[in-house]
Each structure stands twice: as structure tokens, then as C-alpha cells.
Specification:
Order of helices and strands: HEHHHHEEEEEEEEEE
Number of helices: 5
Low-confidence stretches: 1-9, 15-30, 163-178
Largest sheet: 9 strands, mixed, barrel
Structural class: alpha+beta
Length: 271
Amino acid sequence: MSRLHHLWALTAACVFLTLSTAAVEAGPQRGRGGGPPPTGQAGATIDLTGTWVSVVTEDWLWRMVTPPVGDYASLPINAAGRAVGDAWDRERDIANGEECRAWGAAGLMRIPMRVRIGWEDENTLRMDTDSGMQTRLFHFNGTGEPGASSLQGFSEARWEGGAAGGGGGGFGSFGRGAAGGLGVVTTNLVPGYLRKNGVPYSGDTVLREFYDRHSDFGDEWFTVTTIVEDPTYLTQPFITSTHFKREADDAAFDPTPCITDPPLIDAPVEN
């Protein structure tokens, strides 16, 4: 992935964060002329359907393996978050049936994996992961009900840019013009981990994402810029950009349960 594109994504994330503070309360977008909005499927400004594989070009030591206990490098974690992270115990999570906490929505897209994206119905975009066998549902036009809090929470989505998109409505826009993209705001989460070594995020977390499809190096990609806001454990929003390359089919899609390998060093490290 080009350095220019990476820098653009992080800069654009700051714009997205500034413009999206009212996202959770925003109502569904109305169509042109005051009529009902197009369905999520009909109004798509980019096509994210298909099977995609994550390409790990950065943060290898925090994504491809389980980092040491107490490794908080690059994370804006506060004292309360450090206390929870320092006490992380992999075996305790397994015994308590909480081995999937690193696969919650706020950390999921950093897991090396394949994702399969398609339309559940005309207003619900579905993403399935092979690693951890998780399912995310992106609801358009005010559809769906939050229900009980969960690892994947409740995600409201809208298209940005393009003829059917446009900014505003609380979701913000990266200013990509006709290129468009997908904005998602996720709440109603149960506590999870930002990394496999127990770095926590709380149930108060708001997750904001922007999905941008683009062509680079002769391949089709999407980049998801992720903004995690957690007043309980973070001192400021945690921003990442993660890259996925489109595959010809889903032949390599291999569902596996949540498995956290032992940390590299089972002792706190200095930061």
C-alpha cells in the first residue's frame, strides 16, 4: 500500500471524527426531492461484495502474533486500561468462554483474516469473517433493532459521496467526491480487546469506520479507517487504517474458531 494513501487515510480519519459526533442520533437519509431514501443496496456508491484478504503491511508484531502482556505500544491507553491489560490471563478467558473478546467489532478488522461481504437483504450489508467466525451486519435507513449488547454491537451505515450519497447526517465524509465510500457507526458493544493481549475497550465504546474501495498495483482493495472512542480506557480516539485485497473467489475462505496463541513473553514489558 502506498505511503501517500496511508497518510491520506489517517488525515481523512480526523476529518471524519470531527464531522461525526452526532452519528448515533442521526436519522435516516432522505432521497432527492423529499421522497424515501433508496435502499442500501440500490444506493451503493461502491461495491464491497466479494471475498477479501487482509494484507498486513504494518504493525506485524501486534497483529500476526499475541503481543507480550503489558505491551501497549502506539495505544492511547489510560491508567485504568493498563490495570485491566496487566491483569489479562489467556487461560482465564478460555475457562470463562471469553476467548473471542479480541474479535469484537472494535478490534476485529486488525485480525489477519478473510472477510466475505454480501447483501443479507436490501437494507442490510453482511460481513462474515473466517477467523473467529464472526458476523457483522450494517443497517441502512434506520432499519434493524439494537437488541442486547454483543461483540459486534449494532451498526448503522450510510453511503458517502457519489450520486446517491453525500456527506452530512452526522456520519461525515472524507470528501472523496464521486468516488464514494461507506460510513459505519457501531454502538451497543460488550467489552472486548483492541489486541489479543487483553488491551481493553469498554461497553461505552463508539466505533466509527469508513470503507474506501480503490485500485492499486493492478489489484482491487478496500481500506477501512477505524476510529475507536472509549471514555473508559482511552485518553483519545485510537485511529488505524487496515487494507484488504479482493480475491477471485472464496476458495481460501476457511472458517476457524477464535484462537489466541500464548503471548510472546508472559510478563509485563516497559514502554
